[in-house]
Every structure is written in structure tokens, then in C-alpha cells.
Amino acid sequence: MNTIKKYLLTGFAAIFLALTAYGQTASTKSDFFESTGKIYVVVAVIVVIFLGILALLISLERRLAKIEKEEKEL
Could you give the CA distance from residue 57 to residue 37 in angstroms, rounded to a whole number? Predict the structure, then answer.
């Protein structure tokens, strides 16, 4: 469970840094994405990918813990 906490903390830190960095740029490309609403699609795709990776890591951690527990019983 300790590694899951590390991954969650790292993920939240990455999201926080991304949100703070988002507010500091003023380029014409970002204005274009904001005006057309495509920036929300980009953010949604990134969030879905991040959640998928997080779910994969959690499931792998559970499987590994189960295998380690079975090996200790032998």
C-alpha cells in the first residue's frame, strides 16, 4: 500500500504543477484551443490516460501483493 500512496502523491503533484503552469502561458496557440473549446478535449484525454495508468498500477500492486502472500505461505 505504501507504493500506491507514492503514486497517488506523485500524480496529484503532477496535476497541480500542470494546472499552475497552464495559467502562466499566453500564446496564440493556447488562445486558439480555448476559443474553439478543444483545450477541454485535450485535458480530458490526458486525464483519462492518467486514470488508466493509475488503475493499471493499482491492479498490478494488488496482484503482486497476492502472489507475495501466497509465496510466504509456502
Answer: 31
pLDDT tens profile 13-23: 777 766 665 55
Reduce the secondary structure of the chain to three states and give it as a string: CHHHHHHHHHHHHHHHHHHHHHCCCCCHHHHHHHHHCHHHHHHHHHHHHHHHHHHHHHHHHHHHHHHHHHHHHC
- Domain hosting 12: range is 2-73
Closest listed residue to residue 47, CA positions, set 19, 27, 25: 19
CA distance 31 to 17: 20
Count up the domains in the chain and report the number: 1
